[in-house]
């Protein structure tokens, strides 16, 4: 059965012109029915239309609401702190190169991570924080939220596969499972570019318990049926360690790792796990800066082999 997330089907922009693509509700419903997902089809049938096309204003409002609920999950899982635990050592190693570091969050949604890192200052003041996302409505809302709080960060529209924003470190959270396995190599390759020293991509660990955990967590924390549906589907679509590591190996200029932190304050945190890439000449410094936590770094050759 093809596993589809509703949020991937109801909003689209032309990658060349940036124009919103009109989407027929019946087409989305037909795709979901063909995938055997009646429940998702029912959710989409309730979405408002004008002349058979999904109402873009209603879609944007819904996706902003769902991502606001997703922010609660990110807070619950301490995602900003968990990223900082890896980013601080990465930036310490990258500073060896002497340039002002730039951190770019790919598929940033409402920019929770970037805004949170900007608000806490946990990466220090001498760093540029940027969020990119394909969805213009989310980028606009992320920008508004950051401006409201006067946070030193910015947001732009960009495609993960045609990155316009250079970065010292690329990161993402909950994005990898949106791409089919055969596109992942291209995703990682796009980040192996001059000036980029590392990447860290957190996504749901593909364990047998993940779909149940996702169901429980989204039931408890989310109210929108779309968010609850996509949350469970995310866990079912999560890529295995092997798939992620062999895709990450296409960033041939990076040494790649899984990171399995020894302990979590919240056991549900184990549900999210990152794939890391670091330039080989920086891994020694990175490991030193990680301190005891470096024990959680599992080199790709160990796991993939
Ligand atoms: C599950 S959401 C995660 C959002 C955010 N990272 C968070 O944790 O709250 C996935 C995000 O990836 C974005 N996305 C999907 N495909 C993308 C692509 N090709 N390029 C950039 N962003 C993309 C979606 O618009 C959406 O905001």
Explained architecture:
- The protein is α/β, with parallel strands linked by helices.
- It has two domains: 6-57, no CATH class; 62-304, Vaccinia Virus protein VP39 (Rossmann fold, 3-Layer(aba) Sandwich), CATH 3.40.50.150.
- Helices cover 46% and strands 15% of the residues.
- The chain is built from 13 helices and ten strands.
- The protein has an eight-stranded mixed sheet, with helices on both faces. Strands 1-2 form a two-stranded antiparallel sheet.
- The mean pLDDT is 92.
- S-adenosylmethionine binds next to helix 4.
List descriptors.
globular, 10 strands, binds S-adenosylmethionine, two-stranded antiparallel sheet, Rossmann fold, eight-stranded mixed beta sheet, alpha/beta, 2 domains, 305 residues
Q: Which SSEs are present, and which pair or pack?
A:
Layout: H1 6-9, H2 25-34, H3 38-45, E1 49-50, E2 53-54, H4 56-76, H5 79-94, E3 102-106, H6 112-120, E4 128-133, H7 136-149, E5 154-157, E6 169-173, H8 181-189, E7 198-204, H9 210-221, H10 225-237, H11 241-248, E8 255-259, E9 272-278, H12 280-290, E10 297-299, H13 300-304
Parallel strand pairs: 3-4, 3-6, 4-5, 6-7
Antiparallel strand pairs: 1-2, 7-9, 8-9, 8-10
């Amino acid at each position: 059965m093809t596993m589809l997330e509703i949020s991937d089907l109801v909003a689209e922009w032309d990658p060349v012109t940036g124009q919103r693509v009109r989407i027929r509700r019946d087409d989305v419903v037909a795709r979901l029915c063909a995938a055997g997902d009646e429940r998702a089809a029912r959710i989409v049938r309730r979405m408002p239309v004008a002349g058979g096309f999904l109402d873009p204003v209603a879609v944007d409002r819904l996706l902003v609401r769902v991502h606001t609920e997703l922010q609660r999950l990110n807070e619950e899982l301490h995602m900003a702190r968990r990223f900082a635990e890896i980013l601080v050592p990465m930036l310490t190693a990258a500073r060896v190169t002497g340039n002002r570091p730039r951190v770019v969050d790919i598929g940033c949604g409402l920019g929770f991570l970037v805004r949170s890192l900007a608000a806490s200052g946990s990466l220090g003041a001498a760093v540029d924080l940027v969020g990119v996302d394909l969805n213009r409505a989310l980028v606009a809302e992320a920008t508004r939220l950051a401006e409201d709080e006067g946070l030193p960060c910015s947001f732009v529209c960009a495609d993960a596969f045609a990155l316009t924003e250079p970065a010292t470190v690329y990161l993402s959270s909950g994005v990898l499972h949106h791409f089919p396995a055969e596109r992942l190599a291209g995703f990682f390759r796009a980040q192996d570019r001059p000036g980029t020293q590392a990447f860290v991509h957190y996504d749901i660990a593909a364990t047998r318990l993940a779909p149940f955990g996702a169901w429980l967590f989204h039931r408890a924390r989310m109210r929108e049926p779309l968010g609850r549906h996509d949350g469970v589907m995310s866990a079912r679509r999560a890529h295995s360690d092997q798939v992620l590591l062999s895709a990450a190996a296409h960033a041939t200029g990076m040494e790649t790792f899984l990171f399995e932190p020894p302990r979590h304050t919240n056991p549900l945190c184990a549900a999210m796990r990152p794939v890391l890439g670091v330039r080989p000449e920086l891994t020694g410094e990175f490991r030193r800066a990680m301190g005891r936590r470096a024990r959680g770094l599992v080199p790709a050759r160990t796991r993939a082999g």
